[in-house]
Every structure is written in C-alpha cells, then in structure tokens.
Amino acid sequence: MLKHEIPYQSDSAKLFAKIADCPWAVFLDSGQPTSQFGRYDIMSANPFAHLVTNGESTVITDACGERISTSDPFELLKSMLLPHAISQTALPFEGGAIGYFSYDLARRVERLPVMALDAENIPQMMVGIYDWALVVDHQLKRSYLISHCKHRQTEQDWPSLCALFDAPQQDSQKSQFKVNSALQSNMDYAKYSVAFDTVKQYIHDGDCYQVNLAQRFSAQAEGDAWSAYLALREISPAPFMSYMNLGVAQSSLQVLSASPERFLQVYGKHVETRPIKGTRPRADNADEDVANALALQNSPKDRAENLMIVDLLRNDISKACETGTVRADNLFALESFANVHHLVSTVTGKLAKDKTAIDLLRACFPGGSITGAPKLRSMEIIEELEPNRRGLYCGAIGYIGFDGNMDTNIAIRTAVYSDDEIRFYAGGGIVADSELSKEYRETFDKASSMFALIALFGGDVTLKASNPDVGD
User: Fold this and answer.
1) Mean pLDDT across the chain, nearest whole number?
2) 261 noted as active-site residue
3) Predicted TM-score of the model (pTM)
4) Catalytic one of 261, 335, 439, 442
C-alpha cells in the first residue's frame, strides 16, 4: 500500500482543482468549509477501467481495450471489483468504484413502459474503477493520498501524483461558464395541474398512495462548469455534494450535485438509509423561518408521507439484510439547508452474509423517497405523466470501495451539463390531501438554489415569476 500525507486545506476544492481537467475526475464533497454536516471529502481521476451503460449494453474499457456486454450492469460492476477485494480500510474510501447510476437504470431492474422522451441523452450508468484517492478528513484536519496498487501503472505514477498535490495552487485558465438563454420548463402550471389531477385520481382509485411528480428545467450554456460548481457549493452547501467531469467519445458531461440526501451507506455490515420527505422553504426573517420549521415538524401530512417512505425503504433494504435487523432508528428529524427545511428519517440494518453492497444497491434501486408507494406502480405513473425521462435525476452518485463499503446519495438538487445545455429537475410527493398550488410551489422552493446559480451566470429566470402561486 502507498500512502502520502498532503498538507491539509479546509477547502478541498482547491485540491480538486489540480485534477479537475483530468479524465473522469470525480469529487465527492461534504460541502466544507461551509457545510455543518460532512467530515470526509474524496477525489480521484484517471480510472484504470470504466463502465458505461446505454440501454441493454455496457461498454467496459480497461487495459485490454473495449468490450461490450449485455449482462446486468450491477453484476458487471461486482465482477470488476471482486478481483481487487481488500480488507476493511481505515478511511472511508481507498480505491474502488466511483460514479453515477441514473434513475433510468431502473429499466434493468424493473419492467417499465416506454412513454416519456429521453431528453437527457446520457448513459444510464457511468462508473470508473480508481486505483488511488485523495481523502480529506475535516474532523482531524488531515489529508491522505492513498493507493492499494491494484494497477501496475500506479507505482510508476506515484511520485508525480504526490508532487502534484504538494505543489502550490496555480491560477486556472478555464473558460468561464455562461448561461445564454432563458430557463425553460417541460411542464408549465397548466400541464402540471393536469398531471397532478391524474395522480390524485390514481390515489382515489387505489392504484397508489404517493407519487413523486417532477418538472425539468433547462437552459443553453457554454464554458467549463467547474466554476459553476464552485458557486453552487457556496449557494447551497450540503452533506452529499459531488462534481464529476466525465465524457463519452467526443462529448463532455459534467455533473453538479448539491444533494442533501443519503441513499445507501454500507460500512462493514452496517446498512443505513436516510430518506427525506417533507419540505418547507427557508425565510429571510428569523421568526418566519422558525415558524416554517415548526409547521413542518408538526404537519400530520408531511409526517405521514415520510412514514410511507420509511416503510417502503424498510422493505427494500430487508431484501439484502439479515432478518430482524432492520429498524427505523430516528423518525422525522428536522434538517435545515440553505434554501429549505426537510424532515429526515434514518433506517438501519445488518447486511446479510451472502449479500454485498452492490446487491443492496440493486435491491433498493431507485430510491423509494423519490418514486412513491408502491414503488413500481408509482414509477409507471411517473413514466406516463412526466414529459421526459429523468436521466440522472433521482438516481444515485457515490462510491463502492475495494473493501466492500459504499456510500451513495439520491441525485436531487443535481444539474447535468452536456451538449451546451444545463438541466435540472425538482419534484415532490403527491398524496391524497395534497394541494395543487402548494405542491407546485414546492418544486420551485427546492429548485431555488439552482435558479440562483443560473441567474448568477447570466441566465434569465423570469419563468419563475410567470407562474401562478410561485412569486419572486
């Protein structure tokens, strides 16, 4: 094993900037120094292998070249990690898989109708296998460059890699990010109201109890999105942020995530999921802000929504956990972020002896907090009513280590920048007593940080003011 201590910096973005232009550069970011939640930041680049799934095919690229497989992508990833297995590590990640699993990867898990248009035009899965990582521990104020040397090139490259992170930061010459158009939505108030009424009818008819209904925002843009991500982490710090600079063929793809929600964590045999359900906007006035938080905590509707999803996730993680170990440890905790208050619950379990973190991920995919209940019927309704497929939105971003540990977010508050367009979604759970104007406004509350980001880089966000019940 190779290990080198790097001088600690409270802002890990300054370290990641050194590799941000490298192939498949990834930054799993706790939002420090402004986030109150996270402890570790993880970054890497230049994976020695990667998997890219489109439809029924996965392209695997490694030292042997490219090959195509139609096997289950989760099983392919498991087979890529298995030969490199190591024992439990001291740091959360010391090499392994990092990447994204889009919501649309669910088509490899469940049989779903094909109705919505694929407006994202990105792969359903992009995961790299990384032989080194820089891990920053903000609690101990220490930073480690580490590798278990699973690829023959690592030892040869190690001295230059250490020197790169030890060197002073250089001024960046990146092209400035710029938004060139007005923000557009794929579902205006009229279209949203029709979809909302349809969901309510399905609930009335007994098809489902809850459906997460989302709208998609998009704008034309140019330049490098790293500067936009730096602004996003100032506007909306969150515990499960990430930035990824990926690419397929000649096309670049950058992901900017300010997710507040953990999907699945595995540490040893301990399993944890932390679903969010229940939202109120933050207010500039302190008294009003406290009132919003208290209203959320005391809302029977929001607590009932949260409990529905807790029950769904208890069922999902039970598929890969030992019988009798799954528990709802903490219900309806208030967590406050830059733009919204949320209700967050915690569900835990013990991973079964014959199951891996990837088995758990597949069993629970996609996360129930962003589909509805029951999950499959809710996903069918989403496909029917939302104009476009979700792409990465409501999928997952995170790592699965060579040691079997895993941590992933729910890819909400997440923008994808590709083909000169930046896109993001916002949605909310519709239940029997939901009110149209409140649910529609909630999508704008959740997207408010992204609206601020678009405006900061020159985009026209008057779309917000043109919709009823939304305001400025």
Assistant:
1) 93
2) yes
3) 0.95
4) 261
Q: How many residues does the chain have?
A: 472
Distances, alpha carbon 448 to alpha carbons 76, 81, 188, 287, 437, in Å: 38, 39, 16, 21, 17
3-state secondary structure of 406: strand
pLDDT tens profile 43-60: 999 999 999 999 999 999
H helix or E strand, kind and range, residue 267: strand 262-267
Quick one: pLDDT at residue 338?
A: 83
Half-sphere exposure of 138 (CA within 13 A, CB side): 19
Q: At residue 314, does pLDDT exceed 60? A: yes
What whole-number distance in Å separates Cα of residue 119 and Cα of residue 391? Answer: 8
Under CATH, which architecture does the 2-456 domain have?
4-Layer Sandwich (3.60)
* Rounded Cα gap, residues 16 and 43, in angstroms: 7
Instruction: Considering the candidates 18, 78, 150, 277, report the single residue annotated as catalytic.
Output: 277
Strands (E), 16-173: 25-29, 40-44, 49-54, 57-62, 65-69, 96-101, 125-130, 132-137, 142-147
Give the tokens for residue 410. Answer: 């729910």
Q: What is the pLDDT of residue 472?
A: 44
Domains in the chain: boundaries: 2-456
pLDDT digits (tens, 9 = 90+) for 90-110: 999 999 999 999 999 999 998
The answer to whether 412 touches 402, Cβ cutoff 8 Å, is no
CA distances from 19 to 24, 150, 244, 462, 465 (A): 10, 20, 11, 36, 39
- The answer to whether 3 is a known catalytic residue is no
Q: How do beta strands 210-222 and 372-373 pair? A: antiparallel
Token pair for 45? 């680049």
Cα separations in angstroms, 464 against 96, 434, 453:
42, 21, 14
